């Protein structure tokens, strides 16, 4: 028999349902659905996605009294279903060097993510070279060198203001001659100067293709969870400038829950390779849809 506390109470037996624990229940009607929809939109999930998720939750539940536990579970299930297909670690290829171009607006966490990624790859027995192709930002180059030291990975730099593409070419030569498994290329993120940035990224791609016409093998877009809905326009912008193949979302350790990832997954289906959960070298985690959904639903 079930433990005493789980048995229906007297009233429960009388009414034919369990009374304890008494969770407030509410009839699932149009008003409640609308509130739910607004909540999801406020959580950055985007109108389209919010509408569909709500519709799925309504299915088979309209007019029924529903408690928070069931609602949370249903929501988490819906979100997990959307996110599961995009949870994919960075694919590794036998190609040497596998060239990973890392793009994103300044401050999104590109430099940090490259450092963390280099460290993880090293720990997995891969040899890695980093190229600091954001040659205009001296601070970014310095930061990358610090990360390279921490990760035990060489960082190729060029004098400030020199041509990023020519550094990328030198890095290809070096990575090849070193027999490196991967080359991680940091790039500029001046989104306020799109035409320039597009030209710069295009030139880097052109030049590395002179060494390997299949490169870059991955183009990682780094997004900052704290920018909320802005992530959508950043994806739009960078997809126009580069052949974005996957995402990393940083700063998910703070208050931001990254609801925009649901909208992104729903709209673009781009793989989410990792999430940043802190400023330390080990703070890069695999994206776990289930965990993410539960944290988002709260
Ligand atoms: P970049 O300009 O895109 O290269 O960005 P940086 O890598 O320099 O990161 C900008 C700031 O965000 C730095 O202060 C980082 O320490 C911080 N940062 C990066 N990733 C994370 C993260 O996952 N969590 C937290 N809390 N901070 C992060």
UniProtKB/TrEMBL annotation:
Record's catalysed reaction(s): GTP + H2O = GDP + phosphate + H(+)
Gene3D superfamilies: P-loop containing nucleotide triphosphate hydrolases (3.40.50.300), Signal recognition particle SRP54, nucleotide-binding domain (1.20.120.140)
Name this protein carries in UniProt: Signal recognition particle receptor FtsY
Residue ranges of every copy of the AAA+ ATPase domain listed in the record: 96-254
Domain named Signal recognition particle SRP54 helical bundle: residues: 6-83
Residue ranges the record marks as coiled coil: none
Organism, as annotated: Paracoccus alkenifer
Principal location: membrane
Membrane topology: Peripheral membrane protein
E.C. designation(s): 3.6.5.4
Subcellular location: Cell inner membrane; Cell membrane; Cytoplasm
Gene Ontology terms, MF aspect: GTP binding; GTPase activity; signal recognition particle binding
One GO CC term on file: plasma membrane
Known partners and oligomeric status: Part of the signal recognition particle protein translocation system, which is composed of SRP and FtsY. SRP is a ribonucleoprotein composed of Ffh and a 4.5S RNA molecule.
Family note: Belongs to the GTP-binding SRP family. FtsY subfamily.
Binding site for GTP: 104-111, 186-190, 250-253
Gene name in the database record: ftsY
EC main group: hydrolase
Any one Gene Ontology BP term: SRP-dependent cotranslational protein targeting to membrane
UniProt xrefs under PANTHER family: SIGNAL RECOGNITION PARTICLE RECEPTOR SUBUNIT ALPHA
UniProt KW keywords: Cell membrane, Cytoplasm, GTP-binding, Hydrolase, Membrane, Nucleotide-binding, Receptor
Function summary: Involved in targeting and insertion of nascent membrane proteins into the cytoplasmic membrane. Acts as a receptor for the complex formed by the signal recognition particle (SRP) and the ribosome-nascent chain (RNC). Interaction with SRP-RNC leads to the transfer of the RNC complex to the Sec translocase for insertion into the membrane, the hydrolysis of GTP by both Ffh and FtsY, and the dissociation of the SRP-FtsY complex into the individual components.
């Amino acid at each position: 028999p079930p433990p005493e506390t789980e048995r229906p109470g007297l009233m429960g037996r009388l009414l034919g349902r369990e009374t304890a624990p008494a969770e407030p229940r509410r009839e699932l009607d149009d008003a409640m659905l609308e509130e739910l929809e607004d909540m999801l939109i406020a959580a950055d999930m985007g109108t389209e996605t919010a509408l569909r998720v709500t519709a799925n939750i309504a299915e088979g539940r309209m007019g029924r009294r529903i408690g928070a536990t069931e609602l949370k579970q249903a929501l988490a299930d819906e979100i997990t279903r959307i996110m599961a297909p995009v949870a994919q670690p960075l694919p590794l290829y036998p190609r040497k060097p596998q060239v990973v171009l890392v793009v994103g607006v300044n401050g999104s966490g590109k430099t940090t993510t490259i450092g963390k990624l280099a460290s993880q790859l090293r720990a997995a027995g891969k040899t890695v070279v980093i190229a600091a192709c954001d040659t205009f930002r001296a601070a970014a180059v310095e930061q990358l060198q610090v990360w390279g030291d921490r990760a035990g990975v060489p960082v190729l730099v060029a004098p400030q203001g020199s041509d990023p593409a020519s550094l990328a070419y030198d890095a290809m030569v070096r990575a090849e001659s070193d027999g490196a498994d991967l080359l991680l290329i940091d790039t500029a993120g001046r989104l306020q100067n799109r035409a320039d940035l597009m030209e710069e990224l295009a030139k880097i791609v052109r030049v590395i293709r002179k060494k390997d016409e299949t490169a870059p093998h991955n183009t990682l877009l780094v997004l900052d969870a704290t920018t909320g809905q802005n992530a959508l326009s950043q994806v739009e912008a960078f997809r126009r400038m580069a052949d974005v193949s996957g995402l990393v979302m940083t700063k998910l350790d703070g208050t931001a829950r990254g609801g925009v990832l649901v909208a992104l997954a729903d709209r673009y289906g781009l793989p989410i390779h990792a999430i940043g959960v802190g400023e330390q070298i080990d703070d890069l985690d695999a994206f776990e849809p289930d965990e993410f959904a539960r944290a988002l639903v709260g």
